Amino acid sequence: MSSSSKSLINLVSVNTAPDRAKKVIGAVIENVKDRYNIVHAGNTTTIEGVKPLLKSIQPAPGILFCASMWTPEQQQEIQKIARDTIPGIKTHGIPTGLQVQVGPEGIVQYLMERIDEIMEQK
Question: Which tens digits make up the pLDDT trace of 68-122?
């Protein structure tokens, strides 16, 4: 259907509401399954948990999403930890407060509008 690579991509999230993360990311994965083979491989609820989570998943995660409850500074720290732990990992921080403004469906829509751009990160 598409010329995009369909190799398995492990995605991790950093979200203090793991059930919501699973639901939102599950909806995004379902919506892009014709283009990408993404699996939600894990979630951590703390910044301190980012590095151990990334190291515990094989094959190594290819994407990390930061949820919108983190401040911009926390998101930068989380994404730096991810890039230092797994060089080349794609990261994306959902704008702080967006979940409160638009709800889970709005987050799914936000990610759907950006997934190709996220996947093409270098």
Answer: 999 999 999 999 999 999 999 999 999 999 999 999 999 999 999 999 999 998 7
Q: What is the pTM of this model?
A: 0.92
Please name the residues in contact with 93: beta carbons below 8 A apart, sequence gap of 6 or more.
Answer: 65, 66, 70, 72, 75, 76, 78, 79
Residue 40 and residue 67 in contact, taking contact as beta carbons nearer than 8 Å: no
CATH 3.30.830.10 fits 8-119, yes or no: no
Residue 47 contacts residue 78 (beta carbons within 8 Å): yes
Task: Provide the token pair at 23.
Answer: 């639901």
Domain ranges, ordered by start, for the chain: 8-119
Indicate the angle between helix axes 98-119 and 18-32, nearest 10 degrees: 40
